[in-house]
Amino acid sequence: MSTSLCSAPDTVLFDEPLSSLLESVSLYLHVPFCHTRCYYCDFNTYAGLLSLREPYVRALLTEIELAGEMARPVAGGPRRARTIYFGGGTPSLLSAEQIRRLLAACRTAFAVDPEAEISLEANPGTLSGGHLQALRAAGVNRLSLGAQSFEPHLLKLLGRTHSPEDVMQAVRAARSAGFASLNLDLMFGLPEQTMAHWRETLLRALELEPDHLSLYSLIVEEGTPFFTWVEEGRLVPADEDLCAEMYEYADALLQEAGYLNYEISNWARPGHECRHNLTYWLNLPYLGLGAGAHSCFGGRRFSNVREPRQYMRLLASRQRPEAEGETLSFQEQMAETAILALRTARGLHLPSFRERFGLDFWQFAGPRLRYVSEAGLLECDETWLRLSNRGRLLGNEVFLCLLPDKD
């Protein structure tokens, strides 16, 4: 009998058989356009290409069609899709009509669940009440706002173009447009950010009563202006101990306010966990569509060409835009499933692991985890393995032990 990934006492995930989930797919649609590029960003995004929006949408429509054909089961109709996520970049720079066309193409190429979660990332400075109402009418039912901070000088330091007032206005307009599921992205561990700044940002965010909060510690990535400025000594990275204090403070504050920390970086009101991102953390199949998008499907991991014009040229001749890919070994699939699940508060469901791989988890990883288990980084019972409170701060130590090359 197939194991059901059912509700745990502290959070709601998926209440259906694992076998059914593994036969379905989530869709990620990448929109690479931005008005300006933030100083910390290393995503596949581009400023100054807004004139390409419509030809890019047409190329994405073609890729959706081709992906539906590729993913179609051997017998039967289109493959089931459980979630759709518009990421970027700034997807809210597309018109509601363009979003509507993309969703219609998804529903033609895939059997999209009637109650599918359909998320769209947005810059608070790019939204109006009319645009939000049109997006909601087009079928988007979850909005993710890149607030990042409520401190004007920190927003300027990041290269963000919106203000704290823009965030508040966007939230009010989104609620008025009928969005019942709303996320705010916030960043901590920023240069020049104090605990007082972080506390004020969290309190301002809670006043807006979002349904979900994603909190990310700044990582200075090579190739970004931030990286150059750190190398030149013009920017001082945040202290690691202060970052840990910020995380622990946020966790305590948000849980007291009724938000569940269901994944290391994510808190939600009960029932508002991001079902699309849970696809990644449970290592379920997903297809990434658009320039530079990544997929994990059919035992393979693969990605598209990054440059939008090259992406459009390939699809103009109906060629799939895959740039590189690899077949995952059995060991890699087991390791990734365990690592991703351990990022969630619920942890790794051991019976599901056994059903999925035909192997008991401890046969796969037991000796590797002895050191981190003795160090108090793990908690376990007969059904679940999860990170302890200390382990959540030192998760990478556990994850490294699970990598296949540790043998």
Q: Which strand order spans the largest sheet, edge to edge or round the barrel?
A: 9-10-8-7-6-5-4-1-11
Number of alpha- plus pi-helical segments: 17
Biggest sheet statistics: 9 strands, mixed
As a whole number of angstroms, the C-alpha radius of gyration is: 21 Å
Helix content: 40-55%
Mean pLDDT: 92
Measure the end-to-end span.
32 Å
Unreliable stretches (pLDDT < 50, length at least 5) are: 4-12
Return the structural class: alpha/beta
Shape: globular
Please count the beta strands (DSSP E, at least 2 residues each). Answer: 17
Beta-strand content? 15-25%
Could you give a short description of this structure?
This protein is α/β, with parallel strands linked by helices. It contains 17 helices and 17 strands.
